Amino acid sequence: MYRHNIHHRVYKFPDLKTLLGKASPYRSGDELAGLCAGGYEERVAAQITLADVPLKNFLNEAVIPYEDDEITRLIIDDHDKAAFSHIGHLTVGELRDWLLSDETDCAILTTIAPGLTPEMVAAVSKLMRNQDLIAMANKCQVVTRFRNTIGLKGHFSTRLQPNHPTDDPRGVAASIIDGLLFGSGDAVIGINPATDSPAAVSSLLTLMDELRHRFDIPTQTCVLSHITTTLQLVNEGAPVDLCFQSIAGTEKANASFGVNLSLIEEAYQATLSLKRGTVGNNVMYFETGQGSALSANANFCVDQQTCEVRAYAVARKFNPLLVNTVVGFIGPEYLYDGKQIIRAALEDHFCGKLLGLPMGVDVCYTNHAEADQDDMDNLLTLLGVAGCNFVMGIPGSDDIMLNYQSTSFHDALYLRKVLGLKPAPEFEGWLIKQGIVDDKGYMLPVREHGLLKGF
Amino acid sequence: MKRNIPHEIEPLKALQEFTSARIAIGRVGTSIPLKQSLEFKLAHAHARDAVYSELNSGKLTNSLKHFEQPILHLHSQVTDRRQYLQRPDLGRKLNEASLNELNGYSIESDVAIMIVDGLSATAVNENTIGLLDALIPLLVADSLKLAPISLVEQGRVAIGDDIGYGLKAKLSLILIGERPGLSAADSLGAYLTYNPKPGLTDESRNCVSNIRPKGLTYKKAAKKIFYLINEAFKRKLSGVELKDNAGLIAEG
C-alpha cells in the first residue's frame, strides 16, 4: 500500500501498478482503460508518492506476475545486479535528480542501463517534464551498425518508407528513387508490404537488393513482414538484411501479434547467420507503440506507457539496429491530440535510450486525431534536439498504403539544416559521390541522375 | 506575384506515372513548395470535416421511403464527437431509448440493414442510397426478408450486433463511414455479420471497403455484398472462415 496526504485528504494506492497508472500524465488510453487519476490533485499526489518509492521495490513487486508473463521473467532474470548496485540505494525521485545532474554522463548511463528495469524507467519518466525527457535523452548516445553507422552525435538518419497500396514494384521503386535523391534512407529502406505472402515479400526484397548493389548504396533494406515470413525467406536464401517485428510489453499482447521470445530468438539467430552486415552485426528492427497492449485486451491493468517500456525489454535482448515507436498511428482513443502524441513520443524516446536502445520515432498522426502538420513540426524539432536516431521519410508526408501522415523527405532536410545534423557518415559520403548533396550537405539540383535511368 | 516555381523537378516527373504517392514535388530551399503544401492541407481539411460531419437524417429518411420498410432512428451511448473519438466502447452500444425502440420490431427476418455515421457521415450521406438502389433489388429478387432499416448516430461497427440481435435478423449489414484518408474522405464500408449477437469481434465479420463512385462503384459493391450474403446463408457463418473458403471474395 502506498499513500500520501494533501491537506486533509488521504490518497491511497494499493499497489505499484495502480500508482504508476495514476501518476501518468493524462492520455485518453489510460482513461479508456480506467487507470488514470481521477483529477489533477490525485495525479500529483501519485507522482509525489511515486517519487518516494525505493528502486529496490521494483525488484520485489512485479506489475504483472512472474509466473504469468515471460516478459516479466525476462526482466527479472536478466537484471544486472552489479550495474544496479550504483543506483540501488535511490528512490524514483532521487533517480530523476541523479540522472539530470551534470556528473551523470553518457558513459555512466551506459554502465547502469542493464541495472534498470522498464518499470523503473517508466516510473522516473512520469516525474519528468518534457524538458527533462529531452535533456536526458540528449545525454544518451546509442550507436548501432550494419552497413553504416547510426546514432552518432551530430548525425540524424531516416528510414525511407516507399509504401504502395498494391506493392507494385515500379511504384515502390519510384518512391525509393525520389527519396534517395532527397538524401533519405540511411537508417533503412523499409517497405510495409500490402500482403504478407512470402513470394510478394521476396520479390520486394530482391528489387531493393538489386538497386542497392547497382548503385553501391551503403544502407540496409527491409520488408516489414511478419517474423515467420521473414524466417521462412531467410531459410530460402532471400536477400534479408534485417529481421522486422512489431512487439508489445506483455506476453499476451505479443501472442496477439503471433510472436514470443523463443520465436524472435530463432529468427534473430537465423538472420545473424547470413552475415550480411559490413560494418556491424545489428540485424533486428522492432516497432512498438503505446496502446498496443490495451488494444489487444492484454494490458493487465498496467498503464499504456509502462506497457510500452516493457516492450523495450524484449527489444534490448536482441541487439537491434533500429527501434521505432510508431507513436501517433494507433488513434485518438489512445493518444487524443498533438499534446498527448508529443508527450508520448518524448517518453518513448527517452525511456528507450536510457535502456540502451537505438530509438527512432515515427512522428505521425491519423485523420481522426486532433493533430496536424504543425504538431508534427513541433515534435520533429523536439526530437532533433533530444538526439533521436532516426525518423521516417515518406513522399510528401502521405503514406498512401497505411493511410496516415508521417514525416516527409523534406522534413529530415529541414531538421538537418536547422540543427546542423548530418546523415550516417558512410551514407553522407555516398550522397556526395553521387552528386546529390555538396560537401556542406546542401542539396544539389536534380539532373539526369543515374538513378533515373533504366526506369 | 510570380511564384518561385522549382525548375529542377522535371527529370523526376516521369516517375509520377507509377504511383499516386506525393513524389517529385520539388523543393524551395529544403521545404515543400507552397502549391503542394496547400494541396496537402486541403486534403487534410476534407478529412477533418468528414470526421466531424453529421448524418443527414431528414434527407436519408426521405430517400429511403421508396424501399417501403420501416425506418428506425437509433443512437449509441456516445454523447458527442469528442467522446466518440475517445470511447470506442460506448460507440459500440445502443443507448436505452434505442434499445426500447427495437422491442417493437423484433419479428424474424433475414437481413437487417443499418446505416451508421462512423468516422465519416459524409461518406454515408453521399453513397448509401446509391448502393442500396443497386443492392436491395438483388435481395428482394432472392426472396430475402428485410428487417426495418436503422439510421444510427455516433455508432461503431459492432453496434450492429446489438441491433441485429434485437431485431431477430439472421444477418446484419452495416454501412458505415470509413476513417477518412487524404486521398478520399467519402469511403463507405460494408460489414456483414451472420447470426449477430452482442460480444462478437471482428473475426466474425466480412468487409467490403472503399465504396464510392471513384473507388468500388455501387454496382460492383452491391454484387460483391450480395455474393457474400448468399455464401454466409449457405455456410451459416461469416468472418475469417468465409473469407478463407472463397477465393472469389478477394476479386474486385
TrEMBL record, chain A:
Main location: other
Keywords: Bacterial microcompartment, Cobalamin, Cobalt, Lyase
GO biological process, one term: amino acid metabolic process
Reaction catalysis annotation: ethanolamine = acetaldehyde + NH4(+)
GO (cellular component) term, any one: ethanolamine degradation polyhedral organelle
Pfam families, alphabetized: EutB
Ligand binding (substrate): 159-161, 192, 287, 362
Enzyme Commission code: 4.3.1.7
InterPro entries recorded: Aldolase_TIM, EutB, EutB_dom_2_sf, EutB_N_sf
One MF term in the entry's GO annotations: ethanolamine ammonia-lyase activity
Pathway this chain belongs to: Amine and polyamine degradation; ethanolamine degradation
Binding site for adenosylcob(III)alamin: 193, 245, 295, 401
Annotated function: Catalyzes the deamination of various vicinal amino-alcohols to oxo compounds. Allows this organism to utilize ethanolamine as the sole source of nitrogen and carbon in the presence of vitamin B12.
Similarity-based family: Belongs to the EutB family.
NCBIfam families with a match to the protein in the record: PRK15067.1
HAMAP family cross-referenced by the UniProt entry: EutB
Designated name of the protein: Ethanolamine ammonia-lyase large subunit
Gene name in the database record: eutB
TrEMBL record, chain B:
Pfam families: EutC
InterPro entries: EutC (IPR009246), EutC_C (IPR042251), EutC_N (IPR042255)
Cofactor notes: Binds between the large and small subunits.
First-tier enzyme category under EC: lyase
Top-level lineage group: Bacteria
GO MF terms held by the record: cobalamin binding; ethanolamine ammonia-lyase activity
Cofactor(s) the protein needs: adenosylcob(III)alamin
Enzyme Commission number, as recorded: 4.3.1.7
Localization terms from the record: Bacterial microcompartment
Cellular component GO terms held in the UniProt record: ethanolamine ammonia-lyase complex; ethanolamine degradation polyhedral organelle
Enzymatic reactions: ethanolamine = acetaldehyde + NH4(+)
One of the protein's GO biological processes: ethanolamine catabolic process
Positions contributing to adenosylcob(III)alamin binding: 157, 178, 207
Keywords of this entry: Bacterial microcompartment, Cobalamin, Cobalt, Lyase
Pathway: Amine and polyamine degradation; ethanolamine degradation
Protein family: Belongs to the EutC family.
PANTHER family in the record: ETHANOLAMINE AMMONIA-LYASE LIGHT CHAIN, ETHANOLAMINE AMMONIA-LYASE SMALL SUBUNIT
Function: Catalyzes the deamination of various vicinal amino-alcohols to oxo compounds. Allows this organism to utilize ethanolamine as the sole source of nitrogen and carbon in the presence of external vitamin B12.
Protein name: Ethanolamine ammonia-lyase small subunit
Annotated source species: Mucilaginibacter gossypii
Gene of this entry: eutC
